[in-house]
Amino acid sequence: MIPSHPRVDLAGIVVDLMDERAAIDALVHRPADSNPLAVISANLDHIVQFGHGGRWRRTLGDSLRPTHTDADGQSRPLEWLTLLDGAPLVTQADRLTGSSWPRLAGSDLVGPLLDAAEKAGLSVGFLGGSYLIQRLLSRRLIATRPGLVIAGMWSPDRSELADEQSSLKLAEDIAAAAPELLIVGLGKPRQELWISQYGPATGASVLLAFGAVVDFLADAIQRAPAVASDHGMEWAWRLAREPRRLAKRYLLDDPPGLVQLRRHSSLLPAVSAVSPPPADTGPIRSPRRPHPPSGTGHDPTQPAVPSHGRPGQFSALGRPVDVAVLVVTYNNEDHLRALISSLRQEARALRIRVVIADNDSTDGTLAELNLHPDILQVQTGGNLGYAAGVNAARRKAGDAEAILVLNPDLEILPGAISEMLDVLRSGEADVVVPRMVDGEGNLKPSLRREPSLSSVFGDALFGGHWPQRPAVLAEQDAAPESYQFGHEIDWATGAAVMTRADVDRRIGAWDERFFLYSEETDYFRRARESGARIWYEPAATVAHAENGSGSSAQLQALMAVNRVRYIRKHHTDVTAEVFRCGVVLHEMLRSFNRDHRRTLAIVADEALWDALPGPSATRYPAKVLGGFPTGSVIIPAHNEAAVIGRTLNSLEPVLRTGRVEVIVVCNGCTDDTATLAAAVPGVQVIEAPVASKTAALNAGDRVATQWPRVYLDADTVLSPTALRRVLEVLSESPVMAARPAFRYDDSGATWPVRAYYRARRRLPSTQQALWGAGVFALSREGHERLGSFPDVTADDYFVDRLFSDEEKVIVPTPPVPVQTPRETRSLLNVLTRNIRGPAEQRSAPAPADAAPQVMPFPSDAAGPVPQETAGERTPDMPADSAASSASSTAWELFRSIRGPRSAVDALSYSGLAATPRLVRLREPRAGASSAPIVWERDDSSRRPEGLPR
């Protein structure tokens, strides 16, 4: 063992402080029966690569924490010693300890080390450098150190080092030569990673990651003058001599390490090398882990029989399993057979439950699934998107140790699930992703870095032309060694993700607002924010056909838009707008391609976002009715004979389940509304004499018996799928109020009306509240806060103000079609009502804890915002709030202008919104007139010719 010595933590790297003599003695006189020792010379580049925030953080050990490797099938320990190199590290160590420490660079240490090895009779091997350089080195060593025992020299090329079998063969060849000291000069980080994985298999007692020392010893590279080294300027001297090779490292990669070094460095307490690691340092994981204890892994050549039954059979719901596999399908008939077959092979060694959520497939997907009765099927009730499908399957996962989300177009290579599960069971990671190859076995780059402003502009400018550019300029990790060795990552493509079940519950549901793309980016980010460690495991491999979601110009545009939505959710508005400019630049530079031109137009104009692929309801009600949640639907109706039929027809399949009660309250009707409603089996009809919507809502509440409660306008069509999702969210989550997504239907409307709503679609605030969709819902707890509906015009606006952001949610559902006015006069009537509604509610201030809602990112579903009509203010609103509200909307409107068309729409919007305000200014103030309030109703969208076909 190495004697105790001072240690410092430099940006996550435990560095051993020793002088040259102590280091040489520790290496040359190491006991023969000791475990192999890996020696690292840590400089600033080492901090960048392996320290806090580095790509290879927590992959190497240190003198406090040994690692293990099983690359050759035998579990072997490996001890570590990290020496001080690099002027910035020396300066920091001196500052922390108050003492002066020498710089022990490999190039300085190797000469005295070889002299001591020659004197002690130790054999030395050299790994790295070209064949020519090694011949020069051999001649020089014979001339300068004739007594040195040279065990051998090996000069592998990069392809050999990147191949596992070739690396194992290389380690065997080295072991046959039996060097006691092995100097490894493969370049950083390849040399450290190779030692960590294959070093013990070489049989060497000491393995030294000494970079370019082979070239220095052979006099192939000139050393920096002593004056440059003594003053910490060796880097500048080397940069001047080799600018093309070293500019990226010294000028781009290394500077962030200086910040890390200053922020995250400390003096460690004096402990012996055998003491346990500090509790807060976290586990260290080598690229290969030891075999799991008996019973936690499997031998692929000797398949074990799971305790749940026949080999290859999937476990039923109600039994505990090792892994619950969740798959989302949408017309994947061609891929399922290969996936299920590979999962059955994995089920020979593990207890696996397979849950497949189908997003309304119309091909032979369901027929293929029906051939496997031990697979649990879940019908989502439509094409709700990947995240919604994952969540639907997740709710049926049952008792499982781990959750594995898989794309349907995957094939699991033998042992992959066991390998990932072993990583979780080791306690060294919480989320694991495998190595991914295509159908031909070629590596597919799947690792990603967290999206940033620098990466979006780097990708826009360089694309695939500079794959090895600095990490800050690229979201995709293209380095070959990143896919050869296991390490901690930011995120990866979501085709295959395994998470510990308890960690998955902590992370929460996948965000269904991302219909497709960016949902995995969001899941991994929330995993990191929860404290979870995400690990890439190359020993687990899956083959990915990567066409299960299809490909089209619309999906390409959706991918670009969802990148912007992701940044909006997690960053400020300014950052999101700059990021959006980067996405626009990316598409603009590639606009010679028609699909990129289409994407450019969509990203630039937010009014087009709601035309992108999104949730849709099934045409087959049977797919959504099974296990339907309970609830009540209350429909106030005043002379709605023209529309009540289509509203109730959409709910008729749900009525047949007996799980939902539908109550139509005819308030002051003089037409056939009640008769038409009563003709629908299962509908309860209540006659109320007063033509008051809020009175009708209260009357419906007195009759209703189920929870949650959905309040639906008589002219709003709510699909069974959307109704189910709203009821499920209110029943299964702590939120107390919700509404579904919606879209505007302006077909048949006049040009000013269409222009107004095009401008509305471009405003980020178009989805910020419960009002605007013609439908909202309350849980029992939410209704208790409401009590009863007051006599106000804007009931949905009143309800919205009762709840804070955390207490209400917009449910991503198949959008409810909201009929816009068909005539300009009707739109002015609606805007006039929207001014009066909030003004009437002065006597009902919002709760003090109900903060203004800011959605992570908006969709385009909302009606005219009450705050835009802010000529009035409520008692709980500051005096300047109305003006601030109007100015905020004006600023939003200005920012939405992307060209001549959007500018014209913005002017139309402003003119229409201002007209009722100007009219209201000429009206007498409240109390000066006893004229009754007129209900400005939009009848244009209720005409038969105005209804959707």
TrEMBL record:
Superkingdom to which the source organism belongs: Bacteria
InterPro entries: Glyco_trans_2-like, Nucleotide-diphossugar_trans, WecG_TagA_CpsF
Positions of the UniProt region annotated as Disordered: 270-313, 837-884, 923-949
Swiss-Prot/TrEMBL keywords: Glycosyltransferase, Transferase
Glycosyltransferase keyword on record: yes
Annotated pathway: Cell wall biogenesis; cell wall polysaccharide biosynthesis
A Pfam family per the record: Glycos_transf_2
Keyword Calcium: no
Residue ranges of every copy of the Glycosyltransferase 2-like domain listed in the record: 325-447, 632-760
Biased composition (Basic and acidic residues): 935-949
Family affiliation: Belongs to the glycosyltransferase 2 family.
Descriptive protein name: WecB/TagA/CpsF family glycosyltransferase
Originating organism: Citricoccus alkalitolerans
